[in-house]
Predict the structure.
Amino acid sequence: MAKAADTLGVAQPTLSQQIRALEQDLGTVLFNRTPQGMQLTETGHALREHAQRLMVQAEAARTAIAELEGGMSGTLRVGIIHTYSTAFLPKMIAAFGQKYPGVRLNVEVGNAFDVERRILSGHLDLAIAFDPPQHPELGVGRLFEERLVLVRARTRDRCAQQSIPLASLRGQPLALLKTTFATRRILDASLPVGMTLDIRVEMDAVEALIELARSGGLPTILADRSLTGRRDLEMLPIGPPWIRRSGAILWDAHRYQTAAARAFMQIASETTRSMRNPAPEPDESI
């Protein structure tokens, strides 16, 4: 309480009275008060979530007014999932920075669930993840479609293949992403009834899986666009039928989007559209 009062520039008794007045007005207890300190109750957590959104909306209003008064500036907070952080992010940042030098980018890398949650809590303005999102409150702009591919080291003595049937993965030792990743969940949902994979390693690091496959260790399964430009890897689309997913840019549909956010969305669309799929679409008749 003392630290909070000091941060707000008010006396501690005044802050305590304001909190009690708020609790009386709402007819609930917001804090559990113990000798060890104060912790939010369940209703306190609910109120904090709404309060955070109000603060974000107030900041968005100030930004909108500043944009009308002149120029694009401020900070844009962008989230991106691990899978796309190396494939797309560098080009997006370079293009955006060159075109809008007055805007500072704050970028966070995480899994799909985390970036969606941070958009809704107001900690991110937008994010590049998957369509459909897990939260219906999010706005969605689809950027591209991609396929899941078996990733392994490229060798000269192996017969060339255009694709690999899903059934051929039975008994193949693999290193995969954990089930907290959408890529893994999509793969698991695509398995026929009764089919299991021989998973020797599970990781939450895409780059580590790629390096493991590249060094001749365990193959992995990832999305093809996350491997754009990798000539040291063999990437075999799994199918037919192909296992697909869609990449998208997400935002809070109930929040004002700044000019900087709209500009980044446009650059994200242009960047992903200009990057060709690393593997040609195999002939489904093969």
